[in-house]
Amino acid sequence: MIDVTPLEVGGNTFLGITVKLPRTTLLVITGGSGYIMCGALDIGLLNRKLKDRKIIAGRAVGVRTIDELLDAPLESVTHEAATRGIHAGMTGRDALLRMI
Asked: Which of 28, 29, 63, 76 is most deeply buried (CB count within 10 A of its CB)?
């Protein structure tokens, strides 16, 4: 099952996407110029193999819901996200606001 829900963060609209798969759930919040995602996101791959795409993204681990993804500290971010002031330890909510 796939659920797409509009979310308001700081007066801005983002999309929360939940993909229920066997034995796992993928979580993504996207909007502006980037996205945050659950632990399934491979930041290393984005930084190494896809660096020319300049993807702005962050990863939070141990989250099970969109609300948890918003409030969790990011575990890692892409190099391009870092140029926007997004860093590990920042909440997903704060990172999204820097992606506008």
From this structure: 29
